[in-house]
Amino acid sequence: MKNDRYQPQKIEAKWRQKWEEAGLYRAKIDRNKPKHYALTMLPYPSGDLHIGHWYAMAPSDVRARYMRMRGYNVLFPMGFDAFGLPAENAAIKRGIHPYKWTMDNIKRMREQLKSMGTMFDWEREAITCLPEFYKWTQWLFLKFYEKGLAYKKLAPVDFCPQCNTTLAREQVWGEDRHCERCGTPVLKKELSQWFFKITDYAEELLDFSKIDWPERVVSMQKNWIGKSEGAEVAFHTEDGDEFLIFTTRPDTLWGVTFMVLAPEHPLVDKITTDQYRQAVEEYKAQAARQSEIERLSAEKEKTGVFTGAYAVNPVNGQQVPIWIADYVMMGYGTGAIMAVPAHDERDFAFAKKYDLPIVTVIQPEDSSFSGELKEPYTDVDHGVMVNSGAFDGTPATVGKAKVTAWLEEKGLGRAAVNYRLRDWLISRQRYWGAPIPIVYCAKCGTVPVPYEDLPVILPEDAEFLPTGESPLKYNEGFLHTTCPLCGGPADRETDTMDTFICSSWYQYAYLSPYYQGEQPFDPEEGAYWLPVDQYTGGVEHACMHLIYTRFFTKAMRDMGLVDFDEPMLSLRNQGIILGEDSEKMSKSRGNVIAPDDLVREYGADAVRAYLMFGWRWELGGPWNSRGIEGVYRFLHRVWELLLSPVEQSLSQAQNGEEVDALRRKLHQTIKKATDDLDNFSFNTYLAALMELSNLMGKVKEKLWSSEVWQEATRTFCLLLAPACPHLAEELWSRLGYEFSVHNQAWPVFDERLVVEETVEIVVQINGKIRDRLVIPADADEAFVKEKALSSQTIQNGLQGETPRKVIYVPGRLVNIVK
RNA sequence: GCGAGAGUGGCGGAAUUGGCAGACGCGCUAGACUUAGGAUCUAGUGGGCAACCGUAGGGGUUCAAGUCCCCUCUCUCGCACCA
């Protein structure tokens, strides 16, 4: 009987249909099994699944399938991050309603996702733009408001002129401060906006002890939160106006020779003397203009002007001039600093430029230097305090703490902590988002929409115009409402929420999509499945989604909705697949690889396998068309190997050595595959399968009718099942096993069978390989050494000399030192 | 400048925890089968004619270093006048 060839197109759709009919991947609470919540970041429904989605999701699916075979009850859901700008831009450009555009795209992408052969439980799908979903997004907003975690304030904010909306600080990237979505440099605008008080959780967000996340993400988040410890010190002007400064170096207080305020500092106008007023006004105007126009000024040459006012240094009563300069930011600390040019790079440069005095107050330990400083001395671990009154002689290492304590005692200042993290600006002046459930009443002021009135529905009949203001503002039907408190006429808030809010809690929505109960998700489902055990996705979300969702979970914990501190216990990031030209894939470059085409040509299993085999998953790299053909060939070979019969099986006599060799390789492969999948090492997992198939190919003729061959083919199907679910199922069925391979347990290896019976020992003289010995694996040291020394090559190498030392590493080598 | 990561054949990448560098695949070479081959199969494939030399470069520790320590260089990513 001649076997037919491997034709993925003939088997893949068939099995997917069978799986669906059998409800194979429905995830239901089962208290007899340990649970595993595997999650991969949900896609934005842009219209087409691209290779990046495959690269992110296919290996995640492999891992979820592996955990399932390991006996876990696995939840692996999928949904769509469906609010956002492209939908609205399509509406502006082509007159398609964002809802229709989005839902059409979802329909298409859902089918594409299914073609991957993933084990997503589609009955748990959640789409963030549906009222049944965003009702709970709004509900959470109200809870945040109730808890004082949502507030509105007038503030200078970042505005993207291309996207026509404000952005959170996290969504402004790079030195030129461009919009994370479209790359346009942002503008500063003074606007009244809603914020979430993420800074309340700054300290807790710095604690990563409960999660296993990549070091890279941890360090990016730490960096982003930017904790610095020091002291807040109160200074006064000569006229008695108080202003606070923050410093990390209270030990250098005696070295203050001038003060600097940010140009926007509220005290500037008041303290500026008439003589300097014009210069100050000009400088302020220029600073404001600069922040709006050219930010790319390469050299950060320090500039500033004197205000004419003086401050009194509280520690020694000295009068020091107060300047304004744009190197001091209003947004960080108190917007005012004490300048210690002797011990700070920036202050030093400023002092040099404007010829301000420099006073050394930290003396480097062993140098007896005096005179003019060439550069500031910023070392905090060495040196002693000088010119600092009673503190003279205090080592710099303890100076900070001692001075801070002294300041507190004297009532001049206090220990203080500053964070770089800003509160999260969530207002967006766009239509296609969840409306902020707030009403403004002339009588009652800002009034939250009552919970029972949720959801606040987006009107269908909005005008989509790129005005920079929310289209909802011009929608009379939406705008005008009645005040929930007094029943009088009132206006709705017309801004919508940042879509990152939807994705901050979506992992909870999957538990019971569009839940109708009293809270966003079914508590029974939550008690069983939560938290997420394994999360996967791109590292580009390190300081956005991944920080927001941690914040949300902590806030939800404090509301009593969940009982844990972290949303995702373990996180892994995949890399990025580049075009074949090593450039980022883009339509304009014409280097885009379309997964649909690949599936048509090679089948989904080959695409999955190549995406795993081709790169280290966390790194990614350029696409290689030859590479996928190699993997495709491998799958063909596997098909022939397991299915095509041997014409005449050679020796029935079952050569013992080959049986042992195959069995050993089989168990070694199970061990390797298990380890590799545990560690997300998908490329070596596939390499191990290839090695096994290579050996099987060599012994097939001899062992085809043997028991060990059956064991090998069966196990091969099981090991292949997570990677190539369709092919494994087809092979499984053709080998005569019962549906489904995906309901089988992951094979276990026998440690005794993994061990080789004989080992090759390398014999070195002075670390250079001179001979090799094949010995029984359990040979003892004396025997191996004896054998090594008596070998002819070694005798020749030694030339009669007695070795000084003989080192034996069991199972590996003997090193003879002359 | 600060923080994180990386540097191994022509290419993607392997190398338990210091113990045979280059698994597996691509590509390449030769052969077989074929009307044909960009299909398939078989064999070979780090460099060098060799002794030997080889994991970015230079030092060190060790019987033994891709792996540990010190210095230098290059690349990628994040942050960046953060007081």
Structure description:
By secondary structure, the protein is of the alpha+beta class. It contains 25 helices and 33 strands. The strands form ten sheets. Strands 10, 11, 12, 13, 14, 15 and 18 form a seven-stranded mixed beta sheet that branches. Strands 2-1-26-27 form a four-stranded parallel beta sheet, covered by helices on one side. Helix 18 (625-643) packs parallel to helix 20 (682-703), helix 19 (656-678) runs antiparallel to helix 20 (682-703) and helix 20 runs antiparallel to helix 21. The radius of gyration is 34 Å and the shape is globular. The relative contact order is 0.12. The mean pLDDT is 91. The structure holds one RNA strand of 83 nucleotides.
